[in-house]
Design a protein that fits this description.
Layout: E1 4-9, H1 15-27, E2 31-32, E3 41-46, H2 51-69, E4 75-80, H3 81-85, E5 99-100, H4 106-113, E6 129-133, E7 135-136, H5 147-151, E8 155-156, H6 159-171, E9 176-180, H7 193-203, E10 208-211, H8 223-229, E11 233-238, H9 246-252, H10 258-269, E12 276-283, H11 290-302, E13 306-313, H12 321-325, H13 334-359, E14 363-370, E15 373-376, E16 387-388, E17 398-407, E18 410-415
Parallel strand pairs: 1-2, 1-3, 3-4, 4-5, 6-9, 9-10, 10-11, 11-12, 12-13, 16-18
Antiparallel strand pairs: 7-8, 14-15, 14-17, 15-16, 17-18
Helix pairs in contact: 1-4, 11-13
The structure holds iron/sulfur cluster.
C-alpha cells in the first residue's frame, strides 16, 4: 500500500537512475520524503564500480537492514550497480529486501509496483541540479573497468526520449542539467552530442547545461565552440584521461595514445574563452614505471586548462581483463602508490592555485546551491570546488559575483547583482 518513501544514493553518477526510480514510485502513489524514520519504503540505489564503492554500499545495506528490522512492515528495495555486479547467491542476508533490481531497471520496479511497462512516467526530482542520461552502458571495454560488465554495451537513448526528460526536468524546476552517460561523447543520434546540446541550450536559455564523462577519443570538433556560442553551455569538460604513457594507455585498452591527448588538451588550453577541464587518472597501474609516472606528471603539469585532477589507485577488479592478466611483481608497492597519489595531489593543488589567481577579481556567474554556497560555471556541483557567498536567494538562482579569494578548489565571492 503506498505511503512515504526515501531514496538513498551511493554515487552521483547514478542520480539519473534515481530520478527514474522516483518517477515510478510516484506513479504508484508513493510520496517522496526526506527522513527515513518516517518512511514506509526505502530504495537504496548503490554503486559498485570499484572496491571502495562496494564497501560503502555494503555499509549502506547494513544500515538499511537495521532500518527494516525496527519495523518489519517496511519495504526495502535494493537497486543499482551492486546487485548488477554481484548476483545474490542466497548467503548474504539479502532475503530481507522486498525487491532487488539492477541499474536503471525501471521495468523491474514497475512490475513489482503492479504498473504496466508503458506507464514509465519519465523522470522526477526536486533538486535544482539534475542529470540527464543520454545513453546506458559502455562498449569500450577498458581492461580495468567493471562498468561494461555491470551495465552492458552502450545503448543510445533517442533524441525524443532525452528531450522529453529535459522538458520534465525544466518543468520541475531544474536550474542546471548535466548530460551523463558512461561515454557521453559517443552518443551518435541526430548528428551527435554537440547538436543535442545546442538544441537544448536554445530551447532552455535560462538553464545551465554541463557535459560529463567525455572519452578523449570521442570528443567531436565543435564541442568547445558550443560554449562560446551558447552562454548557458558551461565552459567545462569532464575528460578522464586515466594516463598519458602510450604503453600504459595501450594496456588499459583506452583506444588512444599520448599524441591525441596532447593535441586535445593543447586545443583546450588555447581556446578563446577559458575552458575548465576536470580529469581523472589511475595511479599504480600494473607495470607502471617511474618514468611512465613522470610522463603522466609532465602532462598534468603542462596544461593550464586543467582545473581539477582526481587520482585513483589501481584496483584489480574481479571479472576485468586486467584482473586475470596481472603477473606477480607487476603492481607497484603500496608505498610507491601512496607517493604517486600524493604527487598528483600536489599537481592538483598547483592547478587550483593557478585557477584561483586567474579567477580572483573576475566577475562570474554563480548558481546558488544552498544558503551561503554555490558553484561557478567552471565547477561541477557536488564534485568540484564550492563557491562561498553571502546570499539568501533560493537554490538555483544565478547571481553575478566577483571572486574575492580562493583556497584549494574553493572560491569566495561577493554578490554584485
Ligand atoms: S570508457 Fe569508462 S565506463 Fe567505459 S569501459 Fe572505459 S573506463 Fe569503463
Amino acid at each position: 500500500m503506498p505511503g512515504a518513501f526515501v531514496l538513498t544514493l551511493g554515487c552521483p553518477k547514478n542520480e539519473a537512475d534515481s530520478d527514474s526510480f522516483q518517477a515510478c514510485l510516484r506513479a504508484a502513489g508513493w510520496e517522496l520524503i526526506d527522513d527515513p524514520e518516517d518512511a514506509d519504503l526505502l530504495l537504496l540505489n548503490t554503486c559498485a564500480f570499484i572496491q571502495p564503492a562496494v564497501e560503502e554500499s555494503m555499509e549502506a545495506i547494513g544500515e538499511a537492514l537495521d532500518w527494516k528490522s525496527r519495523k518489519r512492515s517496511r519495504k526495502l528495495v535494493l537497486a543499482g550497480c551492486l546487485p548488477g555486479r554481484f548476483h545474490d547467491d542466497g548467503s548474504g542476508g539479502l532475503s530481507d529486501f522486498d525487491l532487488i533490481i539492477g541499474p536503471a531497471d525501471t521495468g523491474g520496479l514497475l512490475d513489482w509496483l503492479g504498473l504496466p511497462p508503458e506507464s514509465v512516467p519519465g523522470v522526477y526530482g526536486r533538486r535544482h541540479l539534475r542529470y540527464l542520461k543520454v545513453s546506458e552502458g559502455c562498449s569500450n571495454r577498458c581492461a580495468y573497468c567493471t562498468i561494461p560488465l555491470i551495465r552492458g554495451p552502450r545503448r543510445d537513448r533517442s533524441t525524443g526520449e532525452i528531450l522529453r526528460d529535459a522538458a520534465m526536468m525544466v518543468h520541475q524546476g531544474a536550474g542546471e542539467i548535466g548530460l551523463v552517460g558512461q561515454d557521453t561523447g559517443a552518443w551518435s543520434e541526430d548528428g551527435g552530442i554537440h547538436r543535442l546540446v545546442g538544441t537544448l541550450a536554445e530551447e532552455y536559455p535560462d538553464v545551465w547545461f554541463r557535459l560529463y564523462y567525455l572519452h578523449p577519443a570521442h570528443i567531436v570538433p565543435g564541442l568547445a565552440g558550443l560554449m562560446t556560442e551558447h552562454g548557458n553551455v558551461m565552459p567545462y569538460l569532464d575528460v578522464p584521461v586515466q594516463h598519458c604513457s602510450d604503453r600504459i594507455l595501450k594496456r588499459m585498452g583506452r583506444g588512444y595514445g599520448r599524441a591525441l591527448l596532447e593535441e586535445l588538451f593543447t586545443g583546450f588550453d588555447d581556446s578563446v574563452a577559458d575552458l575548465a577541464v576536470r580529469t581523472t587518472v589511475i595511479v599504480g597501474y600494473p607495470g607502471e614505471t617511474e618514468n611512465e609516472f613522470l610522463e603522466l606528471m609532465g602532462f598534468l603539469s603542462r596544461h593550464r586548462c586543467i582545473r581539477t585532477v582526481a587520482a585513483f589507485p589501481f584496483w584489480p577488479e574481479e571479472g576485468t581483463t586486467e584482473y586475470f592478466r596481472i603477473r606477480p611483481g607487476e603492481l607497484p608497492s603500496p608505498e610507491t602508490v601512496q607517493s604517486r597519489l600524493s604527487q598528483v595531489g600536489d599537481a592538483a593543488d598547483a592547478h587550483y592555485r593557478d585557477w584561483g589567481e586567474r579567477l580572483e577579481d573576475r566577475v562570474l556567474q554563480v548558481m546558488v546551491d544552498s544558503p551561503g554556497t554555490g558553484h561557478t560555471v567552471f565547477d561541477a556541483p557536488l564534485v568540484d570546488g564550492t563557491c562561498f557567498l553571502e546570499s539568501d536567494e533560493p537554490e538555483g538562482t544565478v547571481l553575478e559575483c566577483r571572486i574575492t579569494d580562493y583556497e584549494g578548489p574553493d572560491l569566495t565571492a561577493e554578490v554584485i547583482a
